[in-house]
Design brief:
heterodimer; A: five-stranded parallel β-sheet; 16 strands; B: alpha/beta; seven-stranded mixed β-sheet; 8 helices
């Protein structure tokens, strides 16, 4: 590394993340963010003040030793950086890409008070990508087998984290995945251009090397119930991590017309089934020329940007509040705007209109204005009378949220849920109303983030480990 | 990988497969289905389970070759494997001793009707079955349905075999002759199920149909299989596939089934042109 350059100061701006040009990237599914070079990573890591009290660590849902791995990068010891990351985070290449660091570790970075916070997320990505490029996969120490069996329902971020933690503690872990490929939302929800599937595959491979068995095409609640797994198959504990696998629709007229997708369907076709490569891949997807995506979260942004890459010319994001209230990551909103997303903020769809063949033709929207704050603290959108108008669309994607899939709760007697169907679980342990049955991630909290799911997984793994000691 | 143990051509374009699927075979009930994916580039398609052997750990799929995937499946032989099979999905048929039941199957619909008829007979019902096809050459499972029924009637649209007419016409005739049905199940192409519902509504017969919308995941996650039942949106893969025949919006289902007609044709044309060579796995 460059020993002769003067050490970077925290007051200097952070290293720019190289990205594909918007006009180019709108037409391909390659990763938008290209990653730091080694020089950039070292330079950025040098900005770290090495605070006596590192507030950043407290902002991380899985408690990564941030000063530890950052210092390693600054010293040019990238292997050590990767290992430090892996001690607390089983999926660093993924988190480095999709975590909302600006709301977590970077939010508490002292540098951010006067200047720009340390680019912790970009450094995390760099270190784990470095390890991948070396072709190495360093395994941590694994405890001797305990003889206990744990079943994990779902191979998304929460399930993978619990699996890794418990496998390292010596337990016999099997993940049951309903789809034909593991990863959950990491494979079906988040697009290739934000999170390459080869990275997900590699993280899953790491977890399998720890001794975890992954059984795909196994739908817990249909193939076997939780009761059957525990009573007939001898599982000592179960962790339910089925995520936010129920699409929400608006229940407006016309929502069942041809060409209206839930975001789950739209993204699953594109990401999991690789419909963007139709006809070499058999699953089709419709885009047409004009697409309207309803919603303002990360899933809506993913849907907008996927529609563009599938060939849509005009892609609208229809959101009933203003841009400032959009829950999506600021970075993804900016990326989408650079890619020429047409943001129709303060617009609410009231019905979808079809043609004589049963196809979407137009979306009728009404303009909104912001009134008093509601229970979530955000200002309530209120329709402006008489402001209805029509947008021509070929395809509509409803990305207003995803809820808990009822398959597991409805087939597990005694498993308590709240009125929206989320499983009730203890905040600290993930324990549900059933002994030996734990839950975490979106199925408990409602749709949230990868890292929060992992944090819940970390806590539940500890609780399950303690529980298994008593059996 | 699920090995094909046996493959029979029931008609030139309807094939029967007995496939290794131990987890599914030991749990599946009549009325349920599986989702199949042939290979890495394949699409996911739903197929009802026509029969199962819990001891041997196998399920029987009867498949009409109507598109690229089913056609490609038809080129596999005994010993070949299907990459992904998941199930059993959907709610099983509700079977009880109703009394006298009508089991009506049209075309490929006879395949899912068969295990239901058998279960209804085992439950003590008098099972009156009516099976039909467009013509004699594409009629399936006649012997099997005979064994599963108390009485059976066969119809062909063109009169080349059995009674000349539609299955629904035969049902009307039986009702006219004095048959009193306590329950009826009708499965087949959507227009047939719509006509079946027309008959059972007219005569106030409690009845169900099994809907066949497009599906992707099959577990309630994507919503593509949404159907309108009694004015409410339901997911056929988890709320169904069976629904009250009188409450289904059949026209909407027919319309939604055409969503990918253009792509289906494109895929089939491409497959036929390369003679399957471009898709060798």
């Amino acid at each position: 590394m460059s020993e002769n350059k003067p050490r970077r100061k925290g007051s200097e701006p952070r290293e720019e993340m190289p990205r594909q040009d918007p006009k180019v990237r709108r037409n391909n599914f390659d990763e938008v963010a290209l990653g730091y070079s080694a020089e950039q990573a070292v330079a950025e890591a040098q900005r770290c003040l090495n605070c006596k009290k590192p507030f950043c660590v407290g902002g991380c849902p899985v408690g990564i030793d941030i000063p530890g791995f950052v210092t390693a990068i600054a010293e040019g010891d990238f292997d050590r950086a990767a290992l430090t990351l892996k001690e607390r985070n089983a999926l660093p290449a993924i988190c480095g890409r999709v975590c909302p660091q600006e709301d977590q570790c970077e939010k508490y970075c002292v540098l951010g008070k006067k200047w720009e916070p340390l680019a912790i997320g970009r450094l995390e990505r760099f270190a784990s990508d470095w390890e991948t490029k070396q072709g190495k996969m360093n395994l941590p120490e694994i405890a001797p087998p305990t003889g206990r069996k744990v079943g994990i329902v779902g191979s998304g971020p929460a399930g993978l984290t619990v699996a890794a933690d418990l496998a390292m503690l010596g337990h016999g872990v099997t993940i049951f995945e309903a789809l034909h490929a593991p990863g959950g939302v990491l494979v079906y929800g988040i697009p290739e251009f934000r999170l390459p599937k080869s990275i997900v595959a590699r993280e899953v491979e790491f977890i399998e090397k720890l001794g975890v068995k992954v059984e795909v095409n196994f739908v817990v609640g249909a193939t076997r119930t939780i009761d059957e797994l525990m009573k007939d198959e001898g599982y000592d504990a179960i962790f339910i991590a089925t995520g936010a696998g129920l699409p929400y629709f608006m229940n407006i007229p016309g929502e069942n017309l041809n060409g209206v997708y839930s975001a789950n369907e739209f993204l699953t076709r594109s990401n999991l089934m690789k419909a963007y490569r139709f006809p070499s891949y058999d699953t089709p997807i419709k885009v047409g020329k004009k697409v309207a995506v309803v919603g303002g979260g990360n899933v809506a942004m993913d849907s907008v940007r996927t529609a563009m890459r599938l060939g849509a010319e005009d892609v609208y994001c229809v959101y009933r509040r203003s841009r400032a209230e959009m829950p999506a990551r600021e970075e993804e909103i900016e990326n989408a705007l650079e890619e020429e997303m047409i943001l129709k903020e303060l617009h609410n769809p009231i019905r979808i209109i079809g043609d004589e063949k049963g196809w979407v033709k137009q979306m009728e929207c009404i303009k909104m204005e912001l009134g008093e704050p509601d229970a979530s603290g955000r200002r309530r959108p209120v329709p402006i009378e008489g402001s209805e108008f029509l947008i021509d669309v070929d395809v509509a994607v409803i990305a207003i949220g995803q809820g808990p899939n009822p398959l597991v709760p409805s087939t597990t007697p005694g498993l308590e849920t709240n009125k929206w169907g989320n499983i009730l679980a203890d905040d600290e342990t993930g324990l549900t109303s059933l002994e030996g049955v734990y839950a975490g991630g979106d199925i408990v909290t409602g749709a949230a983030t990868v890292i929060l799911a992992m944090g819940a997984g970390r806590k539940a793994a500890n609780a399950i480990h303690e529980y298994l000691k008593t059996k | 990988m699920h090995k094909i143990i046996r493959k029979d051509a029931l008609t030139p374009e309807i094939k029967l497969y007995i496939v290794e699927a131990n987890l599914i075979a030991t749990k599946v009930q009549p009325g349920q289905f599986v989702i199949l994916r042939l290979h890495e580039e394949g699409e996911r398609i739903p197929l009802t389970v026509a029969d199962f052997d819990r001891e041997k750990g196998t399920i029987t799929l009867i498949v009409a070759e109507i598109g690229k995937t089913t056609r490609e499946l038809g080129t596999l032989n005994e010993g070949d494997g299907i990459l992904d099979l998941v199930g059993p999905l959907g709610k099983a048929t509700h079977v009880e001793k109703f009394g006298t039941v009508a089991c009506v199957g049209g075309g490929i619909g006879v395949a899912p009707v068969y295990p239901i008829a058998r279960a209804l007979k085992e439950a003590g019902n008098r099972v009156v079955s009516i099976i039909g096809a467009r013509c004699k050459d594409i009629l399936i499972l006649e012997k099997e349905m005979e064994a599963a029924s108390t009485e059976m009637y066969v119809t062909t649209d063109d009169g080349s075999y059995g009674i000349h007419g539609f299955v629904t016409q035969q049902m009307e005739k039986l009702i006219g002759d004095g048959y009193k049905f306590d329950f009826a199940v009708g499965i087949g192409p959507v227009p047939m199920m719509k006509a079946f519902a027309g008959v059972t509504v007219k005569h106030n017969i409690k009845s169900v149909v099994s809907l066949n919308p497009i599906m992707v995941d099959g577990t309630g996650m994507c919503g593509v299989c949404r159907v309108d039942v009694d004015g409410k949106t339901k997911f056929a893969c988890v709320d169904g596939p069976e629904f009250d025949a009188h409450l289904v919006d059949y026209d909407l289902l027919l319309s939604r089934q055409t969503t990918y007609c253009a792509e289906e044709k494109q895929s089939m044309d491409r497959y036929e042109k390369c003679n399957g060579d471009c898709c060798k796995h």
